[in-house]
Amino acid sequence: MSTLTLLALIGFFLFMSSGIINPIGSLYYEHLGANYVAVGTLSMLASLTGITTSYGWGRLSDHVAGRKVFVVGGLAALAVSYLLMAVAPGYRYLYPLKVVAAAQAAYGTASLAWIGDVLARQTTNRGRSMGTLRGLGSLGFGMMAFVSGSLSDLTSLRVPFGLAGGRYPRDWRSAACL
User: Fold this and answer.
1) Which of 29, 112, 126, 131 is the most buried (most CB within 10 A)?
2) Using one digit for the tens of pLDDT, what is the confidence trace for 91-102?
3) Which pTM does this prediction carry?
């Protein structure tokens, strides 16, 4: 499997996890007791942390040999934060987890740089390759955005967070399965 294909698959699954979480996130935060201000703050926190750390992650990934550490580390931190969000007893526990979820910025920055490295070696079809990669990510997001509401209705709001973190519940009917 080529590096570009591997990065496309990883991006597809990452966007799937975001697609399953983002549409129901504010409902889940409310379910855990958050008021509207807390919902807005939680929704903004990972983005703000990502914005403030992206430059540093990019600079660090330029100076450290290999971008794989940042890709794998960012994905692992994101998966752990989603799993912990799935079992959080209240919305206040989500604040530090949203900051940890911003480790996605490490993945995002390093994977884009890695894709750029791979595409720089190609003499043709760079734009088409980049468009295909982004299109696959958008497809993954859209598919799971559609699925997340149905899954939440059938199970609970916790199940999509566990699924996004890579945990597959044994009993889909129960929120306690996570």
Assistant:
1) 29
2) 999 999 998 887
3) 0.81
